[in-house]
């Protein structure tokens, strides 16, 4: 069992101070903050299984178990909650339609195994090779196309109940600009609740499965399928997700290190191994893949409490919550109209995260290699290009990711050999002042 030292008097955090990962507040305060982290992750975590058709309770169970496993593997040094990753939505949806749920679960397992392998390499060789393989223009393109590839699915759901979907979408946007602090950060959850109430008033919700569900019971478990024709072709759609999870985990570690102690960066390899192990475990028994959650980083930044004790409480609370089939049935009753409104915002936000990677790293889009890396990858992903091969089909996510990697690396090789200046020249220099009042010469 991990041991923490008491921070100060256990009740307050002094101005400018933080509660470090190895510290804790009093147990009542720690338990309350753990529950708060469950609330922070809940809105996003339950949406993934609802959208993909996976059992909500099973995903929630392995979210909690994965969090505890993460804390163990990172030696209790890295505060993090592992929630359902949105990057899995597109490949799970496509794989389920193509070859069934078992095939989708095999894809989740494959991602977990590969992520853990990347973690072992990073642990011993460092992160430079990842940066070389996936520079900002490539990483941004891959993350963006994963979100935009889902646009047709959002529209399909939206059309099922346009009024409810519009209210849900409008509520999400308004919540993000009206509310301050915590409520603003969970605007998607707020919007879904409002949309659900509207759907209830409009008679769009079926509660028959809720009435039949027990209050207490084990979640549903499913095993991966390795025999159905088309399974291994479906797995190929999951491979780009590995790149997304690497980027998310590395960003999480760097964020926590910035706010606490630079030595936290030394846990990067272990974080990747831990998330890989948690994702593999979830996929083996019917849960969705996991990732470190930005929502919970926001809570830590607001409270200045980075204690891993809080996350032990959150993980245990999630496990206990997953043992109620009735709660799972309530979440499964969310109608398609509400999901259509929520996913219109959500899928677009995933795409915007990719674009933000370009902005944050000041990618130079005056260079043809960068232009075509982003342009071709996005069109392939948005349009849903596909390629039929013997025994399986490659979808827009795989083809778009492959195009981004090929155009960037091969294009740079040729441009530099020919000295045409079309290659990626690195970050562009900022033009003019970045902030504050204009300075006269």
TrEMBL record:
The keyword Kinase does not apply. InterPro entries: NCS2, Xan_ur_permease. GO terms for cellular component: plasma membrane. The keyword Transmembrane applies. The chain crosses the membrane at residues 46-73, 80-99, 105-125, 137-155, 161-179, 186-203, 231-250, 309-331, 337-359, 371-388, 394-411. It is found in: Cell membrane. Keywords: Cell membrane, Membrane, Transmembrane, Transmembrane helix, Transport. GO terms for molecular function: xanthine transmembrane transporter activity. It is a multi-pass membrane protein. PANTHER family: PURINE PERMEASE C1399.01C-RELATED (PTHR42810), URIC ACID TRANSPORTER UACT (PTHR42810:SF4). Belongs to the nucleobase:cation symporter-2 (NCS2) (TC 2.A.40) family. This is Nitrate reductase. It comes from Pseudoclavibacter chungangensis.
